[in-house]
Design brief:
By secondary structure, this protein is an alpha/beta fold. 25% of the residues lie in helices and 31% in strands. Keywords: Hydrolase.
Length: 166
């Protein structure tokens, strides 16, 4: 890739609120189709990307085996730039499993509200994550609330519904 050539990006979708579909009857939900691809298409991005749906789970339901699967998919990806959409509750746990993967820029993002809601933080978070992918050196990062954090130095503040440096 030259300095002027945009990167190819692989989006790995694991589920989480960003992909949730809610039903009115019982305020129940299920994880739907990955929304990152639709967000990128609607934004009119000019780089190539592939969306791979690896899991469709709430992050509180992820197991060590699920995290190992995400790791395998990141390692197997031919792309150097990886965007992972993930539930916010255990995003840092999965990021820790990927910490030693060399030569890839990996950025996690998600949302506090489903991307399908009219008002949501998903579009902004995906945009911030893409920006991070384009400028960061290899490593693992989390893009939430308008900031890009090294994954090992961030935590979710559940009371304030935001991510912050720890």
């Amino acid at each position: 890739m030259s300095a002027l050539e945009p990167p190819r990006i692989r989006v790995i979708a694991t589920g989480g609120t960003i992909d949730k579909v809610y039903f009115d009857a019982k305020s129940d939900y299920e994880i739907g189709e990955p929304q990152a691809g639709a967000i990128l298409h609607e934004a009119g991005v000019t780089f190539d990307f592939t969306v791979e749906s690896v899991l469709r789970k709430d992050s509180l339901q992820l197991t060590d085996a699920d995290r190992a699967l995400v790791r395998e998919r990141v390692i197997a990806a031919t792309e150097r730039h990886i965007l992972i959409t993930h539930g916010t509750d255990t995003m840092t746990d999965t990021a820790a499993v990927l910490a030693d993967i060399p030569d890839k820029v990996i950025v996690f993002t998600g949302s506090m509200l489903p991307a399908r809601f009219r008002q949501n933080d998903a579009v902004f978070n995906v945009g911030c994550a893409i920006g991070g992918l384009l400028v960061q050196r290899p490593g693992v990062y989390i893009a939430m609330n308008g900031q890009l954090f090294p994954a090992d130095r961030v935590r979710k503040n559940r009371e304030k519904l935001r991510f912050e440096e720890r």
